[in-house]
Write a structure and sequence with these properties.
mainly alpha, 5 helices
């Protein structure tokens, strides 16, 4: 379920600057390099496709955690340097929650796997 939510979030936030850059900038602040904003949007949608339609859970983990860390670290660093809008701190928080959720899901799955009759 976490990968579906992460995928939908990346799809929506990636599509938004492509479809309506003006409303995107109203919330997130003025941008100089619109091509770069749109490129990040397209990359976000590419990651979303992998998360939404991928069949291999380990591959989704290897995609989902680093993607969330990448967004989170950019959000935090460029907030500290006062380069981007504070709204990106909300995104950083969401990315952090995603990472925790994925890690917790992995721990629960591993713990449940240890309880199966084959492992006793």
């Amino acid at each position: 379920m976490v990968f579906k939510i992460q995928g939908l979030y990346y799809l929506i936030t990636g599509l938004w600057p492509i479809v309506h850059i003006n409303s995107f900038m109203m919330l997130t602040g003025e941008k100089i390099d619109l091509w770069l904003v749109k490129m990040v949007g397209l990359l976000s949608m590419a990651v979303a496709i992998g998360l939404l339609f991928g069949k291999n859970k380990p591959a989704k983990i290897l995609l989902g955690i680093p993607a969330a860390f990448a967004f989170m670290s950019i959000d935090i660093y460029y907030n500290i340097t006062d380069t981007i809008s504070r709204i990106y701190l909300l995104d950083a928080l969401l990315q952090f929650i995603i990472v925790l959720w994925i890690m917790l899901s992995c721990l629960i799955h591993a713990k449940n796997s240890d309880r199966t009759p084959n492992n006793q």
